[in-house]
Design goal:
Layout: H1 3-21, E1 32-40, E2 47-54, E3 60-62, H2 64-67, E4 68-74, E5 77-80, E6 93-95, E7 99-106, E8 114-124, E9 131-135, E10 139-141
Antiparallel strand pairs: 1-2, 2-7, 3-6, 3-8, 4-5, 4-8, 8-9, 8-10
């Protein structure tokens, strides 16, 4: 093995060792939850006040606008609410392991009365990747 190849191997090994030094266990089902604290409205600015709870050791990245999906319950089935006209920032928020965050979420101004849920996909930031999803319990928009 030549010196250049040896140096590449050592650099790669050091990089990998650093990656695994901060690993946390990826979240399992139920370790990430989203609670609806309140639903304001009905107005043209109906919004939710949420609490996101990360009971895992892993840091989670999220953006409620880009990684959130609003579903409406119709005839016993969850249907996706079209949010295609929504403008979102590309901000990634990071929720540390064993932490909580309070967030607001604005519902579409044209939202109809009904039963809804918000599903959010989180990126696992501290375990080398992956995703975990959580949803609110159903909530009612009057």
């Amino acid at each position: 093995m030549n010196i250049r190849a040896s140096l590449r191997f050592l650099a790669f090994a050091a990089l990998c060792a650093g990656c695994h030094a901060n690993d946390a266990t990826a979240p399992s089902a139920g370790q990430v939850s989203i609670l609806v604290r309140s639903v304001s409205g009905p107005t043209s600015a109906t919004s939710l006040q949420l609490e996101i709870i990360n009971a895992s050791e892993a840091a989670l990245g999220y953006n409620l606008c880009t990684n959130g999906r609003l579903d409406r319950l119709r005839a016993g089935q969850w249907e996706l609410v079209d949010m295609s006209g929504r403008a979102c920032t590309l901000e990634l928020r990071v929720l540390a392991g064993n932490a909580r965050a309070d967030e607001g979420y604005r519902l579409p101004s044209t939202i109809d009365a009904g039963t809804y849920r918000l599903v959010v996909h989180f990126s696992v930031e501290s375990t080398g990747g992956g995703r975990v999803s959580a949803s609110t319990d159903p909530f009612v928009v009057p």
